[in-house]
Amino acid sequence: MRIWLWFLGGAGALSTVAAIVAPGGKGALNSAILLGCLAVAAIALRRQRPEPRVAWWLLFSGVVASTASTIALSAVPNAPEEMGAGYFFCYPLTATGLWLIARRLRPWSSTRILDASIILIGIAQLTWLFVLYPLLHRSGLKPLDAIGVSLIAVCDMVTVALLLRLALAVRRSAVALLVLASAGVMVCTDAFYIVKYVAGRGAIVISSFSAVGWLTWALLFAAAALHPEARTALLRARKSRGDYGTPIAGFIALSLLGPGLLVADLVLRRGVDPWRHALVPAVLTGALMVAMVLRLGRALRDRVRLQQELAFRAQHDVLTALANRELFRSSLQEEIDAQREIGLLIIDLDGFKDVNDTLGHPAGDELLLTASERLRACAGSGTRSGATPEAGAPEPLLARLGGDEFAVVCRPEVLEDLAAALVRELALPYRVAGREQRISASIGVYSGHPVTTGEALQGADIALYAAKEAGRNRFVRYHPALREAHVAHTLLADQLRAAVESKTGFAMHYQPVVDVHTTRITAVEALLRFTTPEGNAVSPAVFVPVAEEIGLIGKLGAWVLEQACTDAKAWHDAHGISVTVNVSGRQLRNPAFADEVLAVLKRTGLPGAALVLEITETVLVTASLEETAEVSRRLARLRAFGIRIAIDDFGTGYSSLAYLRTLPLDVLKIDRAFVHRIEERQDKALFRAVVELARSMFLTPVAEGVETQGQASVLRELDCALAQGFLFARPMPAPTLAALLEERAATPAAVA
Ligand code: C2E
Ligand code: CA
Ligand code: CA
Is 513 helix (H, G, I), strand (E, B) or coil? Predict the structure, then answer.
């Protein structure tokens, strides 16, 4: 449907007829066509509701205002001057309409306003020089008329400037072209009208040209409103080339044009009064210069800012805006070159990888941001991350080295205080993805006069490893002995990887859990053993954390469970004993854990009631509430199959009792530290309290690490029936345990 084209063609043909039959806008046909255009435009605007609404209606009102004047002037013979007022009012209406559209397309910035004023002043200069001044100079108009004409000229120029701006901002379309053309025709027609008016010394004459112009304006506008794409066409902006590509050369040409023409004019028209003639152009040129200087200054400032931004990005981490690795290294190098004593902290967030894996990268970023804010707060307000430390009192440099690793370069005197504060602050709960998350930090501390940045970094790194190995959530200061430990650690990690791959070097040992009254074996705890290729036995207390760290604990734990259940099946069938298997926190967090355990039971034929899973309390304390809830659900599911859950090393962690209450538990294993001096009065009282607590929570207490008869008799006295320890039996290989069980079954139980 090309109604708008049909309309344009039809009405255009009619207009031509009207212009020939009755030139100068006289005659009923001309008025009828004008009114018809207005009616069509009004209906189209109501139907199509083009956006921006107000702007369209303002443009429409502009056409109405001038049409009213045209019709009135042509209909009334010797019409009074005031009837031409519509020609004036159409300006503010049209200009405001154009301004609204342009603003919607591309919001005004001070830069764009400056650009527009430069263009406007340029146009004003030309208009004054070539149109207005010659006209006014020669016409001998009354002063009031002269002011009126000047005002209209100013309006014309403003409208032209707005048209230019709109033409540059709007995406090209038929509608945009029609609207621009209609307003353009209006400006030209009015300018012509003024010229005529001035030439006719204030007499109102509508020339044929003006009449055709006004008609064309109304026609084009109505066609634009009719166009099927009118609704949104003026909302679509042309792709911006940004403010940097300002045509500076064009500006300079424009600014030289005014004064150049002025000089030329003065030389050519030597006769006229040069001062009156020059005053207005001089003022305009001055204004243009000011605008130009402001604009160039702004362009320069933008460029400088861009330069700074690029420089900052090259040296800083995008996420946290802390210094990046490059800036960190160069700052450290400067400190070394200045032969100052270096203070260095390397900070690593414990368990960050888990958060990132389970909650996703955006959550991980959120956590890192919070951590970096705490880092800033701790290292002191007013820290200029990225600033070169000044001589004397260098400010701390904060950097993100990548991932969850941060670094601080600071004065050695404040090093340990800062490290302690950071450990404290970074362990506070984090709010991430709408949940509360708990995470801690391990820090390596280094100070001294290193020869290279590498030496300082390695020292801090080794200390960081030591902090991790000592249980995380702490800082450790570097000393040379740590280096050996570090080397051993790396070696062990490599050996574990190889051993898991080849399934050699691992073995299960079993330590009996006995009834202290009868010494009958009720259960065995499965304890993993690792022997290095050189034949050295490594304690699980050492290698299990390493296996966790390098991501091997899942595979290893699965093997342990399978082996323990296989071995225990025969012992359970023959002697009714259970098996206790240690489970690492990382295994528990695996969503498939429950399924895997149930699958092992099915494969080995061990009943659920014969299996106890041992978990440490620290594992659960460091997890978030949601994660604990998740683990609880998993454990509860296993309990439904008769599997029991034991809390290991009770008393060594910092778990609250209220917290334990929320977990589905069956057994409480009281740590060796509580049993050790149980014969002394104070410790005995404490131990009794723990046993009573366990009973109140319907948990079976088990004493760990019983080494003496004295300890055993206190346990009997306190009626803590179940115990484990070297006194009864050391951990032993499966065949040895099997033999022991057979031997015990042959002889009746004796009281120890
Ligand atoms: P745990 O679970 O507390 O295991 C008890 C540890 O105490 C064992 O050390 C055992 O040999 C030792 N122990 C037993 N009775 C006595 C005693 O009377 N006196 C003394 N001083 N020690 C005694 P082990 O075998 O070196 O295991 C150390 C830790 O390694 C275990 O502590 C457990 O947390 C972990 N672990 C062992 N096997 C595994 C495993 O298969 N998986 C996981 N995740 N962790 C394991
Ligand atoms: Ca255990
Ligand atoms: Ca234990």
Answer: strand
Atom of ligand 1 nearest to the CA of 560: 41
Q: What's the CATH architecture for 325-478?
A: 2-Layer Sandwich (3.30)
> DSSP per residue over 76-96, as a string?
STT--GGGGHHHHHHHHHHHH
Told to judge if 549 belongs to the known catalytic residues of this protein, a careful annotator would answer no
Which CATH architecture describes the domain 503-746? Alpha-Beta Barrel (3.20)
Which residue has the least CA distance to atom 43 on ligand 1? 582
> Mean pLDDT lowest for which of 159-168, 282-291, 523-532, 637-646?
282-291
Torsion of CA 44, 45, 47, 50, to 10 degrees: 120
pLDDT of residue 271: 56
Any residues with Cβ below 6 Å from ligand 1, and which? 511, 526-528, 539-541, 544, 560, 582-584, 648-649, 672, 705-707, 724-726, 731
The residue contributing the CA closest to ligand 1 atom 25 is: 527
The rounded Å distance from CA 458 to ligand 2 centre is 35
Q: Of ligand 1's atoms, which has the minimum distance to the CA of residue 540?
A: 30
CA-closest candidate to residue 643, choices 600, 688, 610, 669 = 610
Dist. CA 166–CA 176, nearest whole Å: 9
Task: Tell me which H or E stretch contains 348.
Answer: strand 342-350
Q: How confident is the model at residue 241 (pLDDT cuts 50, 70, 90)?
A: low
Q: Tell me if residue 66 falls in helix, strand or coil.
A: helix
| Ligand 1 mean position, distance from CA 279 (Å) | 100
Is a pLDDT exceeding 70 seen at residue 231?
Answer: yes
Q: Is 552 helix (H, G, I), strand (E, B) or coil?
A: coil
Q: Compute the distance from residue 651 Cα to the ligand 2 centre, in Å.
A: 13
Q: Please pick, among 680, 704, 707, 742, the residue that the annotation labels catalytic.
A: 704
pLDDT (tens digit, 9 = 90+) per residue, 440-486? 999 999 999 999 999 999 999 999 989 988 889 999 999 999 988 88
pTM for the structure as a whole:
0.52
* Total residues found in the chain within this entry: 752
Q: Which residue has the tokens 């100052």?
A: 340
* Residues with C-beta atoms within 5 A of ion ligand 2: 582, 614, 648
* Domain range list for the chain: 3-243, 244-308, 325-478, 503-746
Burial of 72 from C-beta contacts in 10 A (0-12 / 13-18 / 19+): middle
CA distances from 712 to 63, 97, 328, 720 (A): 107, 97, 59, 9
pLDDT tens, position by position, 101-117:
888 887 777 777 887 78
Residues 6+ positions from 318 with CB-CB distance below 8 Å: none
Which strand (E) or helix (H) includes residue 477?
strand 475-477
Those residues whose C-beta lies under 8 Å from the C-beta of residue 700, and which sit 6 or more positions away, are 666, 667, 668, 694, 722
Structure token digits, residue 244: 């940097």
Say which ligand is closest to the CA of 646.
Answer: 2
Residue 16, both tokens: 């031509």
Distance CA 277, CA 282 (A): 9
How does pLDDT run across 122-166, given as a tens digit for each residue? 778 777 777 777 777 766 667 777 777 778 788 888 888 888 888
Residue carrying structure tokens 């070394």 = 336
Ranges of H-type helices in 316-450: 325-337, 352-359, 361-378, 415-426
Vertex 717 angle, CA 713 and 718, to 5°: 120
Q: Report the C-alpha gap between 119 and 157 in whole angstroms.
A: 10
DSSP lists the bridge partners of residue 430 as: 437
DSSP state of 202: T
Q: How far is CA 664 from the centre of its chain?
A: 39
| The one-letter amino acid at 566 | T
Q: How far is Cα 598 from Cα 600, in angstroms, rounded to an integer?
A: 5
DSSP 43-72: HHHHHH--SSHHHHHHHHHHHHHHHHHHHH
Distance between CA atoms of residues 537 and 530, nearest Å? 6
